[in-house]
Amino acid sequence: MAAPTGPPTTMLEKRAELTPMLRQYLQLCEAHTDAVVLFQVGDFYEAFCEAAEAVARVCEVTLTKREDSTGTYPMAGIPIDNATSYLERLLDAGYCVALADQVEDAAEASGLVDRAVTQVLTPGTIVDDELLDAGSTNYLVAVTASDEDSSVQRYAVSALDVSTGECFVTPVSSLSMLETELDRIAPVEVLVDPAIPTDLPIFTEASWEIDHAESAGIDEAAATERLQPYLSAPDRRLPDPLEQRACAAVLIYAEYTQGDTGALSYVSRIRRYEHHDRLQLDAAALRSLELFDTYGDGSGRTLFETLDQTTCALGRRCLNRWLRRPLVDKAPITDRLDAVDALTAAPLIREQLREGLATAYDLERLAGRISRQRANARDLRSLHTTIAIVPELQSAISELPADCAAIDSLEARLDPLTDIRSLIADAIQPDPPMEITEGGVIQTEFNEELDSLRETETAGRKWVAELEETERERTGIGSLSVGHNQVHGYYIEVTNPNLDRVPENYTRRQTLKNSERFYTPELKEREDEILGAKERADSLEYTLFRSVRADLAAETDRIQALAEAIAELDALCSLATVAVEHEYVRPTFQTADDKKGIEIEGGRHPVVETTESSFVPNDTDLKAGHVAIITGPNMSGKSTYMRQVALTVLCAQIGSFVPAEAARLPIVDRIFTRVGASDDITAGQSTFMREMSELTEILHDATTNSLVLLDEVGRGTSTADGRAIAEATTAYIHDELEAMTLFATHYHELTTLAEQYERVYNLHFAATREGDAVTFLHRVARGGSSASYGIEVARMAGVPEAVVEHAYELVTDDRAESHTAQQTESSSQQHTQSEQSEQSEDSVDSRSSYPEEEFFDGIADPAVDAPIDEAAMVDVAIALRSIDIASTTPLEALTLLNEFRSKLE
Ligand SMILES: Nc1ncnc2c1ncn2[C@@H]1O[C@H](COP(=O)(O)OP(=O)(O)OP(=O)(O)O)[C@@H](O)[C@H]1O
């Protein structure tokens, strides 16, 4: 937050002398020292002294001054009617803003108008639609920590979206998990327990606002008490005091920002989860898989954008939540897949549903506003419009195949809220004004008294409208007219030449240049009647509106439940639409005992395939406990391949179809990624250290059900150290963790690990070369590769030719040197390897140092010229004859081919 301005010192010094209004301002500043107090004066919000200077600077408004007998005070104001953009600027500049509104009618106030802070605006607690992005979540988070002297430091994280009332809490056992959790929640504002030092990198590098609100340091007893309105038995529902404190912290802070009007009744549920209830995505995985943000210049697409074909804000928010928290239980995943399946198979119904959903308003935020008594009549009509689509949705759904439990349950949850719908239809005008105090809001026939007041008003206006005619007849003045203005009310106007014919009962009201204005006792009486009826009708309408709104507020739970069902339906329709548009397939899941690993046929990267005109699909057969070492030239597709495997697993676990021809998957508990420094958006930090701490986390926490992606581990240090770390990591994962692992590396030496470890195998990406031009095939194949084509890639990227040629020379020198060293070593060991020496001599030219067959890896085969063992040939022939081709999948065929080839080699 930007430095709070605090109460103005000049005013503090003269407190006793200040005018009553400035004294009121000072008191409000003292009660909100963390905020810029914007003080309503008529149609403006004013700030004084230091705060005025900040407002003038940030909002680019004129700094004026207020002068009275006690002194001169700088002053800056923003128009209330147009306040949103200014408030946005203040929030963006890091200020917290307290809106001090006039809470009594200036006309009725006997002295100074009473003002009170009705809302404190902070980034994490704003509720105004105009200040929030549609379909986004806006989480305020609190982090609490166990006592420093407790043996193991633990934390709890609670998040609240003040605009919708969604609230949840989760325990966290380490700082790294805390970071993961915060990255996953993506809060906009975080309240930090004073027991936690805020100079930790997790806070100093964060993009969210950090607050040291007192509420985050709340003690256990106070927390339990403050939670009472939200949870009937806080101790039972949240037995861990840390979690209670975190929840209480966000709620107290939110209550304060909403004007301290008590508990937020629309926070009707506090969900609690533990990390193992969901697929864990560490912070690095969230980033490197580009789920919600892309790195680099941010021009690419994210997975969320690719999967998001939702049509309403509710659905968008729901899909966002699903992607942040993929599931780990097969039953709910299967439920979602069943629903997506049904929707995929019924394109017309799906489109009908999407059309209906596109007219839905943001019920979650509407429910919040209704409950906070901030909804206007238009909001209620928006609620009505949204409820009105439910019968259409139900009837469309009922036409889907009947055997889908997930769809049936969704249909049942789509409550048409008939009573609420009729209440709004009966009470609120179809196209009401924004203002709720100036009438025109309540329907006729809703309230007898209102109808009779309106009749009086209408009859009065009719009488006035007819008066012109009757008076013209009575006086014989053809130009006589009846008019109305704000200052003088109704009048009869007679031009100067006709003044002698004015009847006696006319009383002069106003003299103009060419005419006089009059009233009569009857006109005055009717005017009073009209105005009285209008005033009473407006005030009655306001009362009736508030009572309808209060009745609806009492139904918040039901509205929220409907919002949830609509949101899920929209998210499911979105997944089905994407599945059809991008030709995804339904994945199947293995049972926990199968332990088969990840089997994908024709897998694709869901995002890259939308931008690459000819994306090459690749198979994956990563068995449980296996480590695949992936080598291949730069730019050949290693990282894309690894990420596509992870994204396929992730899509499946949110209940989505997957970008492949077929996929048989395990349920994965965590996805870890360790992506090489240059591929990482965090580049620029102490990269190697970060790389190693991420690796540490993987090596501590990965299980046999985890998927681990390692891209260029060890690149941040010397080659020898890096390679050693990479080898040791592979060995550890293989022996101890048995996690399914994809390891892309340029350390070609790692390919030899396949010979030492039973469950390590090699994959490579091939490329072809013609002259100096390299073509990447983007196809994965078994076996290792040792060519990097780094220099060729540099040339393709436009590195000047002189640099490229020099690089070739340097590689050549390097190789010659290592060759000489090798020779020296060989001769000292008295080995007679003249043949090998000759070969090395040949490879002194860098371009020829890459054996030709590697350029054509996957096309030309090094084993082609080798003699074939006859016994192996017979074995292969027998095996070939026994294959049932009809039941062999492409993946199995590939595996067999590979086995045969190994045999023959
Ligand atoms: N299967 C594929 N089909 C078509 N294009 C692909 C495929 N895989 C990757 N590409 C393209 O190749 C580019 C390079 O891919 P990627 O970053 O995965 O290579 P890499 O082998 O990891 O490179 P490096 O070793 O330099 O990190 C991608 O940006 C993408 O445009």
UniProtKB/TrEMBL annotation:
The DNA mismatch repair proteins mutS family domain extends over 706-722
Tell me yes or no: is Transport among this UniProt entry's keywords: no
Any one Pfam family match given in the protein's UniProt record, by short name: MutS_I
What does the record list as GO biological process?
mismatch repair
Entry's Gene3D superfamilies? 1.10.1420.10, DNA repair protein MutS, domain I, MutS, connector domain, P-loop containing nucleotide triphosphate hydrolases
Q: Where is this region: Disordered?
A: 815-851
Q: Which UniProt keywords apply?
A: ATP-binding, DNA damage, DNA repair, DNA-binding, Nucleotide-binding
Q: Name one GO molecular function term.
A: ATP binding
Q: InterPro entries, per this entry?
A: DNA_mismatch_repair_MutS, DNA_mismatch_repair_MutS-lik_N, DNA_mismatch_repair_MutS/MSH, DNA_mismatch_repair_MutS_C, DNA_mismatch_repair_MutS_clamp, DNA_mismatch_repair_MutS_core, DNA_mismatch_repair_MutS_N, DNA_mismatch_repair_MutS_sf
Ligand binding (ATP): 632-639
In this chain, composition skew of type Low complexity spans 819-837
Q: Which NCBIfam families match?
A: mutS1, PRK05399.1
Describe the task this protein carries out.
This protein is involved in the repair of mismatches in DNA. It is possible that it carries out the mismatch recognition step. This protein has a weak ATPase activity.
Return the similarity comment.
Answer: Belongs to the DNA mismatch repair MutS family.
Q: PANTHER family from the entry?
A: DNA MISMATCH REPAIR PROTEIN MSH1, MITOCHONDRIAL (PTHR11361:SF34), DNA MISMATCH REPAIR PROTEIN MUTS FAMILY MEMBER (PTHR11361)
Q: What is this protein called?
A: DNA mismatch repair protein MutS
Give the organism, scientific name: Natronocalculus amylovorans
